[in-house]
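Query form — protein Class I SAM-dependent methyltransferase

QUESTION: What is the three-dimensional structure of this chain?
INPUT:
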Amino acid sequence: MQSCRFCGEALTQNFVDLGMSPLSNSFIKPEHVYAAETFLPLHAFVCSHCYLVQLEDYESPDHIFQDYAYFSSFSESWLRHAQSYVHKMMSEYPIGTNSQVVEIASNDGYLLQYFKDNEVPVLGIEPARNVAQVAIDKGIPTISEFFGRELANDLSAKGNQADLLLGNNVLAHVPDINDFVAGMKILLKPDGIITMEFPHLMKLIENVQFDTIYHEHFSYLSFTAVNQIFQKHGLQLFDVEELPTHGGSLRVFVKHEQDQSKRVQERVQSLLNEEEEFGIKSMRVYEMFGQKVKKVKRDILEFLIKAKNEGKTVVGYGAPAKGNTLLNYCGIGTDFIDFTVDRSPYKQGLFLPGTHIPIHSPEQISEAKPDYVFILPWNLEEEIMNQLSYIREWGGQFIIPIPEVVVK
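ANSWER: The structure tokens for Class I SAM-dependent methyltransferase are given below.
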């Protein structure tokens, strides 16, 4: 029996079992399309002691991130989100040309480039070497290592402590969350600020966002659980923002608990109260989630079966990790979706793991003129519908699968 990766308690409470699934970003090269694939259990549990939702450990981060296929800069809305964040931090906090900004999981430099444009010293930490190299080529200093106590001690010893230490969508990706947060405590200057963004578990449950569960995400985070984790390591959440990104995310603001220069905002207790009212500490909420997921699966398949029986053509848009969870759990392959497209040239010409749906460039949609475009990264629905508005010319429509099947 597995133990909770935060508090060590035995994990006995089921959250959702999504069956067997390949690694969500293990895209297949054409020459390997008939080779055997590795499928791993995708089964999430919730700790009844600290309320951390988590997957069992079946694969190491070294394998998952050795040749990563996700590049943040291919989403225009995400770049705008990064620009807005940089403006906020520089206008509302004393972050300027004399500050040191460090980003953990800095990807291809999508965010640090905007600090660099404002002549703020930056350092990226990105374990995926192929992605880190793209940032380095942009002139953004980047260390290609996993973050934790060891790296934090090394950087601190070299005088690289952070005035602003940030991480977007990384907290869920670390198997040893105690080592990770302890490292942030070490790397943060006495009066520094940490900001972390992560998908909000409450929204995941509320909107049945089961497809955001995949092997790269070791943990699924409520504000309640995150508050406990940071407190354990001498860090205090002093503010929080609710964001629309990734179907509903949180941005937490963190300081050393000894730092008296930053007042704890009322929003912190307010959100803790809201989660408690929602039932984040009630096992009943977690038990009900699995049944809701099964209904969404049935509804998606019912729609696709009806469409195909009527002779309609369906293609996908995007090749995100969440899409691979959805397709594999629902058993959707080329019998339902002819192909998918993605703006990233790193994915074009490959096949989706498990389902073997081919990935083309977006231009293929205008050539195929499908009846439906199935939007796999539903969190970018508006951006994608604007990009592909031309499908209306032949009567094409969009399928949004989460939280329920909607045709637009």
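ADDITIONAL NOTE: The chain has 13 helices and 17 strands.
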